């Protein structure tokens, strides 16, 4: 750093919010607006509320309500999916730990490759691919998403100012299912749910 430079140290949630809002510019957040940052990662989901005090030349935010969080990140989805696979396939003669491990590695989309399983229309397996129905996906996601929605609603309630938006960041925060579920849960309050295009911060 040269002469006259200054270093500003900010918290991880502030950095995530600033990065995400910058990546989404233009956005509908204005000076004076309050938003909830929902950092949904692998192990935890952490929330905090901020008020925007400046947008230009540098985004400045201040805490509007203390944060909260819980152990309900995407790792818990993996555990539910693991149980789903065991319940559905453990009696299959081609099922073993290698097949389970490979399926877990590929659990990122609704059409999961499960090498080693033979075609079985009743289980939704065709050409080594497991097709998850909407009902299957809902059963896997619902317990975790319900907990995240509860956290979001608690954070909104703890924020004394009107909340204009929920800003989703983190790996699990990129889930369309999670975003749409939160959007439905807060629709009656007119709160916008925003997902950063590069939310893996």
Description:
The chain has 201 residues and is of the alpha/beta class. It has five helices and eight strands, in the order αβββααβββαβαβ. The strands form two sheets. A five-stranded mixed β-sheet has the order 3-2-1-7-8, sandwiched between helices. A three-stranded antiparallel β-sheet has the order 4-6-5, with no helix packed on it. 30% of the residues are buried.
Descriptive keywords:
8 strands, alpha/beta, 201 residues, 36% helix, five-stranded mixed β-sheet
Task: Describe the SSE topology.
Layout: H1 12-23, E1 34-40, E2 45-54, E3 60-70, H2 74-89, H3 97-105, E4 111-113, E5 125-126, E6 129-131, H4 134-158, E7 163-169, H5 176-186, E8 192-195
Parallel strand pairs: 1-7, 7-8
Antiparallel strand pairs: 1-2, 2-3, 4-6, 5-6
Low-confidence stretches: none
H-E order = HEEEHHEEEHEHE
Secondary structure category: alpha/beta
The number of helical segments is: 5
- Rounded to an integer in angstroms, the radius of gyration calculated over CA atoms is 20 Å
Short structural description:
This protein is an alpha/beta fold.
């Amino acid at each position: 750093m040269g002469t006259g430079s200054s270093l500003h140290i900010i918290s991880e949630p502030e950095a995530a919010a600033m990065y995400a809002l910058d990546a989404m510019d233009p956005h509908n957040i204005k000076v004076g607006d309050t938003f909830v940052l929902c950092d949904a990662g692998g192990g935890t989901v952490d929330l905090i509320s901020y008020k925007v005090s400046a947008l230009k030349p540098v985004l400045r935010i201040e805490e509007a309500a203390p944060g909260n969080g819980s152990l309900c990140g995407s790792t818990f989805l993996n555990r539910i999916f693991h149980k789903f696979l065991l319940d559905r396939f453990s009696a299959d003669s081609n099922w073993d730990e290698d097949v389970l491990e490979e399926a877990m590695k590929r659990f990122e989309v609704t059409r999961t490759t499960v090498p080693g399983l033979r075609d079985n229309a009743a289980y939704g397996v065709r050409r080594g691919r497991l097709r998850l129905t909407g009902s299957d996906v809902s059963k896997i996601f619902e317990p975790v998403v319900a907990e995240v929605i509860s956290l979001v609603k608690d954070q909104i309630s703890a924020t004394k100012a009107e909340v204009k938006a929920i800003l989703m960041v983190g790996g699990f925060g990129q889930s369309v299912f999670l975003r749409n579920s939160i959007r439905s849960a807060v629709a009656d309050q007119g709160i916008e749910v925003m997902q950063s295009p590069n939310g893996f911060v």
